[in-house]
C-alpha cells in the first residue's frame, strides 16, 4: 500500500514539473555490435515514440562492425522504408569497441545535446525533457537517467517502486558499484526528484552538452572494446569542473545480461587494461590501491597515456584526493582511514597465519578465514582497523553474532553499517583484538590454514596476539 502510494506520488511529482518549450535539441547515439534484432528495434522505437519531435534532432546508430546477417541489408532496408529520415546509420569498417564507436557517433551528431544509449534499452515516458532541462540550466552537468531493469529472459520492464534509486560508486579493483545516496546529498538536492549527485556512472546511458563533451576530453581513444571508460569519464568530469548527476524523473530500461554477446579480439582483458589507463591518468598515488587488487596490470601493456595526462594538465583538473574528500567522502580508503592495516598475522608458531578471505564471494556475508601469510600484501589478506574501530575490508566488516553465548564463535564478515555496535573492535598494547560488545578476543586457537577464524574468551595466550603490517603514527 505505501509503496503504491510512493510510486504514485513520485510519478505525479515528475509529471507536474514544468519543462521549457525551448529546450536544446538532442542527438541520441545508439552504438551496437552484433546486437539482437528485437532489442535494437525496441530501443529505436521507444526513442521515436517517447521523445518530443521538436527536441529530437536525430538518432545516430553506430554499427561497430557487426557480422550478424540481419544487421546488414535487412537493417539498411528497415531504416530506409520503416523509419523516419532522422534515423541515421554509420558503419565502422573495423571493430573499434564501444569507446571509439561512441566517439564516432559524437563526431557525426549535430544536436545541442548528446544522449548515449546501449542498444538494448527502452526509453520511458517523459525521459528526455528532464535531461534537456537540466543541461539548459547547467551546461557542464553530465546526466544519467534512472536505469530500470528489463528482465533478460522475459524482456519485461520492471518499474521499481518509483522512488528508491541508487547512484554510482566504485571499488578499488576498478569496478563500478551501486551505492546509497548519502544523507548530506539527500538534504542538498532538496527534493527526492531533484538532480542527485553521483560519484560515478554506470556508463551506458547518459546525456551531455555536445560542446562540453569535447571540451572535457570526450573519451580516451586508447581504450578498447569494453570497460573502464565510465570511471574514467566520472573522475574526469568531477575533477575537471563538471558535475555528474542522476535525474530521477528520467527513466530508461536496460537489459542487464550475464554475458557478452560479442568477442574480445585477442582475448584481451580490456576492462583491466582500460582501467589501468584510467588509474595511471586520474588516480594519482591512489592507484596503489588499484594495483593491490590488480598487481598483474602494473606491468601490463596498457599503452601510452601521456596525451591523457596532458589533457588533465591543460584542463587544470583537481587531484584524486580532492575527489575523494569532496565527491565521495564515504569511500573507505584502506590505508588512510585506518589506525592499522596490511596483513593481520599471528606469529605463535610456524607457519604464520594471516587473515584471508579465502577467495570467498564478498557480495554476501561470509566467514573470515585464515591462510599461510603471503610474502607480499595481496588483496585477499588486506585488512584494516578503521578509525571507527571496524575490523574490515573494503566494504565488509567483521562482526560476531549478538546471540553469541558459547566460548568460541566464528568471525562473520557483513556489509559495514558504520554504526559501531557489533562491528566495533579495539586493539590492545599486547596485540589483542577485542570485540567490544561481547568482550571476546580474536583467537588463532588450534586453527590451520584454510580454517575459519574465531573469537573466544580473552586470555594471555599468544594465540590471541595479532600484528598488522603497518600502524598509523599516533
Ligand atoms: C556497462 C554499460 C556500458 C558500458 C560498460 C563499460 C550500462 C547500462 N551499460 O556495460 O554502456 O559503459 O558498462 O564499458 O551502463 N558495444 C560495441 N562494441 C563493442 C562492445 C560493445 O559497440 O566492442 C556496444 C554494445 O552493443 C552495447 C554497448 O556497447 O550497445 C555496451 O555494451 P554492453 O551492453 O555489453 O555493456 P554493459 O551494459 O554490460
Ligand atoms: Mn548494456
Automatic annotation (TrEMBL):
InterPro entries with a match to the protein in the record: GalNAc-T (IPR045885), Glyco_trans_2-like (IPR001173), Nucleotide-diphossugar_trans (IPR029044), Ricin_B-like_lectins (IPR035992), Ricin_B_lectin (IPR000772)
Protein species of origin: Petrolisthes cinctipes (Flat porcelain crab)
One GO cellular component, as annotated: Golgi membrane
Topological category with respect to the lipid bilayer: Single-pass type II membrane protein
Location (main, coarse): Golgi
Cofactor field: Mn(2+)
Subcellular location: Golgi apparatus membrane
Keyword Transferase: yes
Keywords: Disulfide bond, Glycosyltransferase, Golgi apparatus, Lectin, Manganese, Membrane, Metal-binding, Signal-anchor, Transferase, Transmembrane, Transmembrane helix
Family membership noted in the UniProt record: Belongs to the glycosyltransferase 2 family. GalNAc-T subfamily.
GO BP: any one term: protein O-linked glycosylation
Designated name of the protein: Polypeptide N-acetylgalactosaminyltransferase
